[in-house]
From TrEMBL:
<dbReference type="InterPro" id="IPR008265">
    <property type="entry name" value="Lipase_GDSL_AS"/>
</dbReference>
<dbReference type="InterPro" id="IPR001087">
    <property type="entry name" value="GDSL"/>
</dbReference>
<protein>
    <submittedName>
        <fullName>Putative triacylglycerol lipase</fullName>
    </submittedName>
</protein>
<dbReference type="InterPro" id="IPR050592">
    <property type="entry name" value="GDSL_lipolytic_enzyme"/>
</dbReference>
<dbReference type="GO" id="GO:0005576">
    <property type="term" value="C:extracellular region"/>
</dbReference>
<dbReference type="GO" id="GO:0016298">
    <property type="term" value="F:lipase activity"/>
</dbReference>
<dbReference type="Pfam" id="PF00657">
    <property type="entry name" value="Lipase_GDSL"/>
</dbReference>
<dbReference type="InterPro" id="IPR035669">
    <property type="entry name" value="SGNH_plant_lipase-like"/>
</dbReference>
<dbReference type="GO" id="GO:0006629">
    <property type="term" value="P:lipid metabolic process"/>
</dbReference>
<dbReference type="InterPro" id="IPR036514">
    <property type="entry name" value="SGNH_hydro_sf"/>
</dbReference>
<comment type="similarity">
    <text>Belongs to the 'GDSL' lipolytic enzyme family.</text>
</comment>
């Protein structure tokens, strides 16, 4: 009978073994954190389909705080009364009274409760493998839109994503990173600022292009961006349509006349853009057959709620909860302005952004409608 004993490695290999064990232990701890952070999934996913993470690019509708330390932009909201219904009323840079679509999406997938901003100085390494938000309030498909707002442009958001990939590879390795990127869902929410701010409000682009030409520029930018995400490993991409900006309180006040009606030409421009975006996404789907890219209509459900608030349980659809509700947004919606007695009565939180309640209705509806196209 022979006794087999595992001999210790030679002294020169101790440091290598220790490094390997430390790396494996770190990955084990990270896995435990990821499991403990999961919430109960509300969406019913197909069998044998997993969504390990969510990544969001876009503007203030989905920004979860990337603009907080950006002193070049006025598109910040990390002060009261923003976030009054979130985490004990602490403002986090979310442009609403509570959660924004980024958070609600990861909640619906059962991944975690909030989607952190990539530039959050307190971002934990354990959050990276389940997704982050790269969006920046004021951004647009048109680079000039982000420049005018001092926001992080789409190209800058892509650069952050590239940096993120390197960080994740360092934490969990290249193979696992590739798996996460291929099986996660990417969401893109842009277009409103291009039409409302850059084209109509600033008039700069009006001097150069008509609406058909300008929307072509937006589509070209959107297409380039989606191809970049594909090249970086994204295979499931949901692209939100631009919303009905002509009916937000601010635009009604500024361009809707005495009666503050919805601004028809703004919405017409958005509808043209959305039509082109839908067709472009169909084209990209055929170009990248192993990729699922879905056009997700938020224009219609939001407009329905705005025009028929009572039908959806709201009382006010043409004013925001903050201040007079007719114009206040970002710095003009502050602790000096009163807020409405009951935010659940309002479709809008400020002059641009819906309440968490409205966001939740739209996110649930849109995900249930388009999920099969993404998975």
């Amino acid at each position: 009978m022979f006794l087999f004993m595992k001999l210790p490695p030679p002294p020169s290999s101790y440091s290598l073994m220790a490094s390997i064990y430390a790396s494996l232990f770190l990955r084990f701890i990270l896995l435990l954190v990821l499991v403990s952070n999961k919430t109960m999934a509300l969406l019913k996913l197909p069998e044998n389909v997993s969504v390990p993470a969510v990544f969001v690019f876009g503007d203030s509708i989905v920004d979860t705080g990337n603009n907080n330390n950006n002193m070049e932009t006025s598109a910040r909201c990390n002060f009261p009364p923003y976030g009054k219904d979130l985490r004990g009323g602490i403002p986090t840079g979310r442009f609403s009274n509570g959660k924004v679509p980024s958070d609600l999406i990861v909640e619906e997938f059962g991944i975690k409760e909030f989607l952190p901003a990539y530039l959050d100085p307190n971002l934990q390494s354990s959050e990276l493998a389940t997704g982050v938000c790269f969006a920046s309030g004021g951004a647009g498909y048109d680079p000039l839109t982000s420049q005018l707002a001092g926001a992080i442009p789409l190209s800058g958001q892509v650069d952050m994503f590239k940096e993120y990939i390197v960080k994740l590879q360092g934490l969990i390795g290249k193979d696992r990173t590739t798996f996460i990127l291929a099986n996660s869902v990417f969401f893109v929410v842009l277009g409103a600022n291009d039409i409302s701010n850059t084209y109509f409000f600033s008039h700069i682009r009006q001097l150069q292009y008509d609406i058909p030409s300008y929307t072509d520029i937006m589509i070209n930018s959107a297409s380039t961006f989606l191809e970049e995400i594909y090249e970086l490993g994204g295979r499931r991409i949901g692209v939100f349509s631009a919303p009905s900006v002509g009916c937000v309180p601010f635009q009604r006040t500024m361009a809707g006349g005495i009666e503050r009606k919805c601004v028809e030409n703004y919405n017409n421009a958005i509808e043209l853009f959305n039509s082109k975006l839908s067709k472009q996404i169909d084209s990209l789907t055929h170009k990248f057959p192993n990729t699922r890219i879905a056009y997700m209509d938020v224009y219609t459900p939001l407009l329905n709620i705005i025009l028929n608030p009572q039908k959806y349980g709201y009382k006010v659809g043409d004013r925001g909860c903050c201040g007079t509700g007719k114009i206040e947004v970002t710095f003009t919606c502050n602790y000096l302005n009163p807020t409405c007695p009951n935010v659940l009565d309002y479709v809008f939180w400020d002059g641009f952004h819906p309440t968490e309640s409205v966001y939740r209705k739209i996110v649930v509806s849109v995900l249930n409608k388009y999920l099969y196209q993404l998975l």
